[in-house]
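Need tokens for this chain, all 128 residues.
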Amino acid sequence: MRRPALAINRKESVDLLSDLVGEVENRMALCRGHGARNVWTLPEALRPVLVVDEVAELFLMADKSEKEEVSRTATALLRVAQLGRAFAVYLIVCGQRIGSDLGPGVTALRAQLSHRGATASTTPRPRT
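Here are the structure tokens for all 128 residues:
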């Protein structure tokens, strides 16, 4: 699957994540067919990278009409995080504060991420 895509709204994100979940499921079937436990033991495979910049944008809702779309996004992203490690999908999630106040999907996603890093700005604040 070649998917050089940039999703700029939640609808595009859901579509892209759904395609990626399908790709992971295809890799699972391929591994089962070859008796392999993961893609690393198969012949050369693609290794997609999924970068989510400002993950909060995917979970915030303006009104209740967006609730189902947010839920589908959270479910797809969580599924990629769960299965991605074994099936060669690199997931990089960025955000300023990824906290439980964004909903239960974020808490579950944080639990699936294998590494968390944080940086702070060393630029001094201007004095007023």
